Amino acid sequence: MVYQATASAPVNIACIKYWGKRDTKLILPTNSSLSVTLSQDHLRSTTTSRADPSFSKDRLWLNGKEEEIVAPGRLATCIAELKKMRKELVEDKDASAPKLSTFPVHIASYNNFPTAAGLASSASGFAALVSSLAALYALPCSPSTLSLIARQGSGSACRSLFGGYVAWEQGVLDDGSDSLAVEVAPRSHWPEMHALICVVSDDKKGTSSTSGMQRTVQTSELLQHRIKHVVPKRMKEIEAAIKAKDFDAFAKVTMADSNQFHAVALDTEPPIFYMNDVSRSIIALIVEYNRVAIEKTGKRKAAYTYDAGPNAVIYTLQENVKEIVELIVKYFPQKDGFKDPFQLFAGEGGVGEGRVVEGFNEAVAKKFEVGAVKGLIHTNVGDGPRVLDAEEALLGPDGLPKSLA
Amino acid sequence: MVYQATASAPVNIACIKYWGKRDTKLILPTNSSLSVTLSQDHLRSTTTSRADPSFSKDRLWLNGKEEEIVAPGRLATCIAELKKMRKELVEDKDASAPKLSTFPVHIASYNNFPTAAGLASSASGFAALVSSLAALYALPCSPSTLSLIARQGSGSACRSLFGGYVAWEQGVLDDGSDSLAVEVAPRSHWPEMHALICVVSDDKKGTSSTSGMQRTVQTSELLQHRIKHVVPKRMKEIEAAIKAKDFDAFAKVTMADSNQFHAVALDTEPPIFYMNDVSRSIIALIVEYNRVAIEKTGKRKAAYTYDAGPNAVIYTLQENVKEIVELIVKYFPQKDGFKDPFQLFAGEGGVGEGRVVEGFNEAVAKKFEVGAVKGLIHTNVGDGPRVLDAEEALLGPDGLPKSLA
Q1: Cα–Cα nearest to B48, from B404, B400, B405
Q2: Which of B207, B218, B219, B259 to mutate to test the interface with A (most CBs of A within 10 A)?
Q3: CATH topology of domain A3-188+388-404
């Protein structure tokens, strides 16, 4: 008997940003946050976990490379918590259940997007890890309960336990048991939400989000105001916008919160910068694109958001993606052709040189050299973690990653 | 009899930033601010004012080009206020005083620094205008009283009425009569304060500070916290630092407030960016330079500050300027030689290729192309407005600017 399960989990990109911990061990945040889960058809982490009494110890391979599992590190904590749940929720209640909690595990994880893309893989990675172990252990747990474990691996990972539109409620308890992810709306509620990720070239080493956010907590005078007075209001506003499928309101709050996250990073000593001149220019393009849209219809059509790096994620409704790809390509010529997963340009033989919409003031940004935006990834709102068939397993019969075989 | 006076006034660079008006007509700020006045030996505005009953109307030339004086604009307001003071404080009290308040004036003003340098000339310009008219009208007024007028031309101009270290107290009265500049310490108290201005090339049109600050007032959630809770504390801290000549404390507050000003600009809708990648790299260099200094002596040796543009102003004590010039030149090679007004490199035939101090981590920034920093201006703390001799006048015998003759 082989005890093994494989799961995949999605990336999520926050609209209301998580920045600051009130407990660094349990990873309890200083404010609630909210994200959109992106489709696993395009970006995902996949993880296979196997429990076997013949294994000598817990081992993990990330993209084929073994990573040490150091207690009491984040990885060790997640695995230990899930083993404990296996024992308490399954084995202690059913004497016939195999004692998987006592077996060492081998875990192989793989991200289908390059690390160089600068997309945070820790959220999808920990969500896939937790999902595969939960499947292996047959845990009778809701995604919210699993999110409590994923959160201890990487805070934002808890939001990748759901598809659609997801809130991470900060919670108030010291033990973190109420700091978990909940579904605000499923993907099916508002499936028209698309995202265009602009992968921005950067020659600077950024500040890691783990160390950066704690420097902000310690030194920013503005962060406390954000936490207490701004985020609670914005959480309500964006939840209402999602429920009403009001893209204009969604976009307004999303952009304001991206700006404010980077503002408190800048208010840190020494200041933290994640956006560069390319990021700034993409903002200028989206601001102008929205200005034209507001003039015509009274409503915004796109929302930029930036995490702890220079990459832009542009949220927009499906009907506008083509215009926005053309806009970005005009200012940021692409070396490689645009991968067109939704076949926007199928009838036109590709995206071409790009163009701006009527009434757009082209002087708001300059045209950059090829490579300033290294790539464009078009995706959309997606579902939550998936348990995959055995044929998708990343571990071979010998319990070692297939890619190493 | 020719009624004419010429005055010059200095540039000032704020350490605690002015950003936001509570009254846009009277130019009353939402918070107090504090600046260092820079030497007129290097940067200055010079203005000649002449009153003559034969003139047909008030006229003004800026750098030789006539500018229209439109009532109730800022220029017209300043001139009208000064004429009113002439009448009330001089002519109404002394019947023999010539009725200059009834004569039209011709005003010629000249900045000795190029507009392209991106240095705000409105502060020194309005301070020189007010100083020359005050001299022409023989107004028995303190610099603080004149600062009330200059403030209505351009807010930060009020701080250029004093040399040394100058606070602009925001005031509480609706008529603005308590919103004025006061001397915190004269230049002679701490003459070792030097400044290095890095003129940064930028291909973007910035947002004007007048419109930008009001957008921040209207849309930034963080500005109110800054105004109410942060600035009052920092004003006390920096005044104490100046009085104690504590450069480390001065630098800490100055950098934090520059960061916070740019943070609230970024928290604006749409966001306002004044710093670019070059600005960010200069910050990284100063942060690293200070890290080395703190490791050696426990104290910071330099403070960056940025106004509404990409230029850096680096405050440091005289003894450190040479090191900092060498640091900047190493990362930002200069096309034109460094003008060396204090003869730092007199014995070495110029600044050379630059270098970093021992222990400096050179990887904190990349070396830029020639021209990224277009120029370096070395100056120091200076005195307040000066009334100049007749031979310095900018108006010719015909009452028109000499440069046009």
Answers
A1: B400
A2: B259
A3: Ribosomal Protein S5; domain 2 (3.30.230)
Cβ contact (<8 Å) for A259 and B271? yes
Banded pLDDT at B69 (limits 50, 70, 90): very high
Distance from C-alpha of B393 to C-alpha of B405, rounded to nearest angstrom = 13
Confidence at residue B54, expressed as pLDDT on a 0 to 100 scale: 97
Q: In this complex, do A271 and B277 lie within 8 Å of one another by their Cβ atoms? A: no
The domain limits of chain B are 3-189+389-404, 193-380
Cα distance between residue A39 and residue A151, in whole Å: 20
Contact flag B255-A266 (C-beta cutoff 8 Å): no
Spatial separation of the C-alpha atoms in residues A132 and A107, rounded to whole Å: 9
Whether the predicted interface score ipTM is above 0.90: yes
Query: pLDDT tens for residues A294-317?
Result: 999 999 999 999 999 999 999 999
The listed CATH number (3.40.50.720, 3.30.1830.10, 3.30.420.10, 3.30.230.10) that belongs to domain B3-189+389-404: 3.30.230.10
Class of domain A193-380: alpha beta
> Which tens digits make up the pLDDT trace of B282-333?
999 999 999 999 999 999 999 999 999 999 999 999 999 999 999 999 999 9
- Hey, are the CB atoms on A255 and B270 less than 8 Å from each other? yes
- Tell me phi and psi for residue A334, to 5 degrees: -100, 140
Shortest distance between the Cα of B281 and any Cα of chain A, in A, equals: 9
Cα–Cα distance for residue pair A199/A204, rounded to 1 Å:
14
